[in-house]
Amino acid sequence: MSSSFGLPVEIGIDDLDQKQKTGSKVTLLDIREDWELDICRFSDSVDVPMINLPGRLKELPKDGLLVVVCHLGMRSQRATVWLRNHGFGNAVSLRGGVDAWARKIDSSMRTY
What we know:
Radius of gyration: 13 Å
Shape: globular
CATH architecture: 3-Layer(aba) Sandwich
Helix content: 25-40%
Number of strands: 5
Number of helices: 4
Largest sheet: 5 strands, parallel
CATH class: Alpha Beta
Strand order of the largest sheet: 1-5-4-2-3
CATH topology: Oxidized Rhodanese, domain 1
Oligomer: single chain
Distance between the termini: 27 Å
Strand content: 15-25%
């Protein structure tokens, strides 16, 4: 699925893994709640619960890829559309969320 922003709305875990390994400018925006982050988290993410996004937009980069992460990829899709409508054409949702990442890319990460 793609949008009028030129980027697909979602990025797969393999694509994200490749971009990170090749040094592409990628910012992970984890929109999960604190209790979810206590279970597992990305070491290099910007953590902003979805409900707090409107008040923290100034913390987010508009350059490079902004990959929005949640548990399974549903909240991140909604947040991505919202972010794009608020000037973040670089936002994409991580398909399958942290769950898919933990199951296929980083098996040391806990799942829930």
